[in-house]
Design a protein that fits this description.
Order of helices and strands: HHHHEHHEHEHEHEHEHEEHHEEHEEEH
Strand order of the largest sheet: 2-8-7-6-5-3-4
Radius of gyration: 23 Å
Structural class: alpha/beta
Distance between the termini: 79 Å
Bound molecules: pyridoxal-5'-phosphate
Largest sheet: 7 strands, mixed
Number of strands: 13
């Protein structure tokens, strides 16, 4: 056999995962951060020099981007690695898919499971939270008259999944209103508990409400639900890699997250976690009878999909770990409190987000007498600040989501704009 061909086959079938990162970009950044001496989260949170290093790793915008709730941009190291994975895989596509992909997928899954704090046998890499939770909602056995509890601040597509089960299988959807600014955890737990009946089978609960940023006491709610024999589906689209937690701390039976949000992967990466003893309760949407019913890989038979996106999850995890989950949470909460503390008290300005540990990077603000759309439009047209208007029955205001690359100077510009618009 030709030597170069032999060498290629040796490397391509080696089984070990390829390196998921670009040493040049990430190693340089890692070395630069070393100079800060691994600061404690609260110390790091206010260290603008530290965050300017991180800012340099993200794309530049022609406007002040305070709408990072839709999705996060990839930092340069992940973006570059993603492109390199595409190039490498495309350079031997079928060979890669047949001989290497399984090992690379397994390596990425192991990294993701470690980050989530759960066994690799309990996770699936999906495209997003919609797919993760849809796999559960549509894959679980439901009988006419079964009830599912959810709230009017849950994400629309998740509510739609339940409504569809209502049409298809006669599921009764019990949609409750939850307080915007709860007095304490018990008020929230009680609000959910009141909706339960002997027919309640499922509970959908958002860890972080997407339109306000409120963090719900999921563990306490899950404990209460389990005491009623109700299975818990956690929507962690916004909390995963944003606040510092591991999945067992929440104790949900099923959990979905979008990795392209706060983990900053390329678009189209998600996580589904199912507790080992619940895996058998979910039918694979696309059919798989080859695996045991308690083998989560039965849910991975989804057909051909972008292998390079899965690979880049590994690079994103390395970037995230380099910063540290606790430092990231501390910085994002600091940025949110930096601006909310300044606008609170301005006449006509109201906040739809609780204070303290009940929120992190996301918050929602409104101005009395101004529609959410008018506020978001004025912020962009007059001040070059991008936010998103939220106008639902439960919440009216504009959602403001800084990111790790946001500066306090940008937040000062936002606070000034809100003050001027409230006075106008
Ligand atoms: C709370 C929540 N759940 C689910 C989703 C859906 O995420 P994806 O579009 O990544 O599936 C979102 C998206 O913003 C969300 O905020």
């Amino acid at each position: 056999m030709h030597t170069s061909r032999r060498a290629f086959l040796r490397s391509a079938t080696a089984g070990a995962a390829v390196p998921f990162f670009t040493p040049s970009i990430l190693d340089t950044l890692e070395r630069r951060l070393e100079a800060y001496g691994h600061p404690a989260p609260q110390t790091a949170a206010t260290d603008e020099a530290f965050w300017s290093e991180i800012r340099a790793a993200y794309p530049k915008y022609a406007y002040i981007n305070l709408e990072n709730g839709f999705s996060s941009p990839e930092p340069a190291a992940t973006f570059e690695a993603f492109q390199r994975h595409q190039q490498e895989i495309n350079g031997g596509l079928s060979f890669y898919m047949r001989r290497k992909k399984a090992a690379d997928d397994a390596a990425v899954k192991a990294q993701l499971a470690q980050l989530a704090g759960v066994p690799v046998e309990e996770i699936v890499i999906t495209r997003n939270t919609t797919e993760s939770l849809g796999t559960v909602t549509h894959g679980i056995d439901l009988a006419p008259g079964d009830e599912a509890v959810m709230c009017n601040q849950d994400y629309g597509s998740m509510l739609e999944q339940f409504r569809q089960q209502s049409r298809r299988r006669g599921l009764k959807c019990v949609e409750i209103a939850i307080p915007l600014l709860p007095r304490d955890d018990e008020e929230m737990v009680e609000t959910y508990a009141r909706a339960f009946t002997p027919r309640t089978k499922l509970l959908l609960v958002s860890h972080m409400v997407n339109i306000t940023g409120q963090i719900l006491p999921v563990r306490k709610i899950a404990d209460m639900a389990h005491a009623h024999g109700v299975a818990v589906i956690v929507d962690a689209a916004h909390s995963f890699a944003h606040v510092n937690f591991t999945l067992p701390e929440l104790d949900g039976d099923y959990l979905g997250a979008s990795l392209h949000k706060w983990l900053c992967t390329p678009l189209g990466a998600g996580l589904l976690h199912i507790k080992k003893d619940k895996i058998k309760t979910v039918w694979p949407l696309f059919g798989d009878t080859a695996r045991a019913e308690d083998d989560i890989r039965k849910l991975e038979r989804i057909g051909t999909h972008p292998a390079w996106t899965t690979m880049a999850i590994g690079d994103a995890i390395r970037f995230h770990t380099m910063i540290g989950s606790a430092r990231k949470e501390a910085r994002l909460r600091y940025l949110q409190q930096y601006w909310t503390d300044k606008v609170r008290g301005i006449p006509k300005v109201y906040l739809n987000t609780p204070t303290g540990y009940r929120a992190c990077g996301i918050a929602n603000v409104g101005i009395t007498g101004m529609t959410p759309a008018a506020l978001a439009t004025a912020l962009f047209d007059k001040y070059n600040i991008f936010t998103v208007a939220i106008d639902t029955v439960a919440v009216k205001g504009t959602r403001v989501t800084p990111h790790l690359y946001t500066t306090t100077a940008e937040l000062d510009a936002f606070v000034k704009a809100v003050g001027e618009l409230a006075r106008a």
